[in-house]
Design a protein that fits this description.
Elements (H helix, E strand, L loop, with lengths): L1 H4 L2 H4 L30 H17 L26 H19 L4 H15 L18 H18 L7 H18 L36 H8 L1
Helix pairs in contact: 3-4, 3-5, 3-6, 4-5
Length: 228
C-alpha cells in the first residue's frame, strides 16, 4: 500500500531533519515545528517493516484486536500452529535476508542497532509457542502501533504536513513551559495574570505580599473546562 499510494516514503531520498535553532532569543510559532522522534529514513522504515513482518510470521496465537483487557468472559485464543522445524527453517532464511539488508546500511551505528534488534527478535525461533516465552513482548500490539506511528510520521513529512496538529503542539509547549517554571521555582512578576484553573488557590503557597511564591502547574483539563 505504501508503494502504491506513498512510494516516496520507502524509496525517496534520505530526509535530513533540521536541528532546533537556539540562535534567535525570540520564539515564534514558525520556530515551533514538530520534529519526529523516530527516523523517517526510507532504509530504516523498510527494515522496521520487514522485521515486523518477520515477527508476525513467528506468531502462533492470533492477536486479539481490539485488545481485550481484564474481561473474564473472554477466552484467550490458543495456538493455531506451533513453530515446527520446517517453519523455523523458513523463518531462519528470512532472518538471514534481513541480515543482508542490515549490512547494507552505510552507518556502522545503524548496523549495530539493527543487528541487536534482529538478534532479539530471532530469539522467538527458539520457542514452539513464542507467545508464552519470556520474549513475548516482541509480539505485542504496542510493537505494531509503534511501527504504524513511525510510518504515519514519515507519510506526513513527505506530504509536507505537520506530524502533530498546531493546536496540540502549542498545548504541549504551554504545559511544558509552566511545568519547568514551577519545577525551578520561578516567581511570577507583580500583577502577572495567573489563570485560576492552573491550580486550586488553596494549594498555592503565598508570600507575605499575597503573591504566589512560584508559578503554579498548568492543568489543561481545568483550563479547557473553564472556557466551555
Amino acid at each position: 500500500m505504501l508503494n502504491e499510494h506513498f512510494p516516496s516514503v520507502l524509496s525517496g531520498p534520505m530526509v535530513v531533519l533540521p536541528a532546533p535553532s537556539l540562535e534567535s532569543p525570540s520564539l515564534t510559532f514558525q520556530s515551533m515545528d514538530y520534529i519526529p522522534s523516530t527516523s523517517i529514513d526510507p532504509a530504516h522504515l523498510t527494515l522496521n517493516l520487514r522485521i515486523l513482518s518477520f515477527v508476525e510470521a513467528c506468531r502462533t496465537i492470533p492477536l486479539m484486536y481490539p485488545p481485550v483487557h481484564d474481561d473474564a468472559s473472554s477466552t484467550p485464543p490458543t495456538a493455531s500452529t506451533d513453530l515446527s522445524p520446517e517453519r523455523q527453517l523458513t523463518l531462519l532464511l528470512k532472518a538471514q535476508k534481513l541480515d543482508v539488508l542490515i549490512n547494507a546500511l552505510p552507518k556502522a551505528s545503524d548496523r549495530a542497532v539493527y543487528h541487536k534488534e534482529l538478534n532479539n527478535v530471532s530469539g522467538l525461533l527458539a520457542y514452539k509457542v513464542p507467545e508464552t516465552s519470556s520474549i513475548s513482548k516482541y509480539l505485542s500490539q504496542e510493537r505494531r502501533e509503534a511501527v504504524a506511528d513511525q510510518i504515519n510520521s514519515a507519510i506526513l513529512n513527505r506530504l509536507s504536513q505537520p506530524a502533530v496538529p498546531s493546536l496540540e503542539l502549542l498545548a504541549r509547549y504551554t504545559s511544558a513551559l509552566w511545568s519547568f517554571a514551577h519545577q525551578y521555582g520561578v516567581k511570577p512578576r507583580a500583577g502577572m495574570p495567573l489563570p485560576s484553573t492552573l491550580m486550586q488557590h488553596e494549594e498555592l503557597s503565598k508570600s507575605p505580599d499575597n503573591e504566589p511564591e512560584t508559578v503554579p502547574l498548568f492543568n489543561l483539563e481545568k483550563f479547557l473546562d473553564s472556557k466551555t
